[in-house]
Write a structure and sequence with these properties.
4 strands; alpha+beta; about 20% strand; two-stranded antiparallel ribbon; single chain; two-stranded parallel sheet
């Protein structure tokens, strides 16, 4: 955040203490800024999160289990595969219904 145009921005659970509305607003801003900077400089934003509602907007989602990447793809692709990501997404979503 100290550079005007960083090539890599790592956000590790940046919204863990926020309520759902504030989290949504902040991630909208992160996503818009990441897309803008990415188009201008080729920069990459890496987001680490356990909240599936926030990662579904990512271009690429990596699912880690037992210290290994076990699935990779977009939200749509991972949901269609009906694997670990889909199971965990549905589990979290059910808590908000």
């Amino acid at each position: 955040m100290m550079r005007e145009a960083p090539l890599l921005l790592i956000l590790d659970e940046p919204t863990s203490a926020l309520d759902a509305q504030a989290e949504h607003e902040l991630f909208d801003r992160y996503a818009s800024n990441a897309q803008r900077v990415g188009r201008l400089t080729g920069a990459v934003t890496l987001l680490v999160s356990h909240r599936f509602s926030t990662v579904q907007m990512a271009d690429l989602i990596l699912v880690v289990a037992d210290s290994r990447v076990v699935e990779a793809g977009s939200h749509r692709e991972l949901m269609e595969r009906d694997g670990l990501y889909a199971d965990l997404f549905q589990l979290q979503a059910a808590a908000y219904r």
